[in-house]
Predict the 3D structure of the following.
Amino acid sequence: MSEGNLRSIAAMLAAVAFFALMDTVLKHLTAHYPPAQVASMRGWVALPLVVAYLTWRCAWHRVWQVRWPLHAIRGVLAVVMLTAFAYGVSSLPLANAYTLFFIAPLLITLLAIPILGERVRRAHLAAIAAGLVGVVIALRPTPDAFLGWAGLAVLLAAGAYAASAVLGRLACRTDAPESLVWWSMVALALGAGALAAPHWRPVAADHLPALAALAITGFAAQLAITEAFRHGQASAVAPFEYTALAWGVALDAAIWGVWPDAPTLVGASVVIAAGLYLIRHERLHARRDLHTNTPHP
């Protein structure tokens, strides 16, 4: 394995850990504030760090040179994603939420077909179908459980995240990466804040450390995941996103005394297997194309 891949894998492991800690803080705050307010606070506490980062990189001129319609849509998706996810984790253990959210990489593959013009292959369709089966298993094969609002909210968050990621790839063809981070945080702070305004609760002083932790873990996670995909091959790095499940199980057990049940573990195994199969399939085709220098069907 190349040094670049090892460095990127280490960065991905760090990113997943920081995201898991951030989600733990989100879950804690949803016990005291409405989900939309938690999403808005996530945006507000991130903005000072993003301002400092953009100033350090002398990148302010790049945040204005953007395709506004794409950023507007991504802003709406950011509000939907984090508000729905905050609502989901307010009721679900982290391990359950992560299991459902793991459908996002498969949805990205599906959405990339019409939006980015990528070709559909049988392997893509098989992996997506298998992943959906895993999600149904994790949601429980009963009508009441399947229609649980928390589970559906996490699926909505995964869908919004997938759509945002694909539009982000599209925007990056012309816009600077810094602009995506800045406008997403601005939209989150203002958009979710507007949703939360009618029911906004004053922030208690004893929750300020949690908000500081939310800012630091979220910013560190963003830097780490950017580093992860900067030096290594995406197919080598992406599988390590699934270590989030281990963090979810550990944090659920340590903080809330909750362990995942059998349907969650089985569903997670199916979804992860589908994702790993898709990653392996893409890696093999990439190698074949490199040697033959011909497009694959």
Summary: Residues 95 and 245 are 6 Å apart (CA to CA). Residues 262-292 form the longest helix (31 residues).
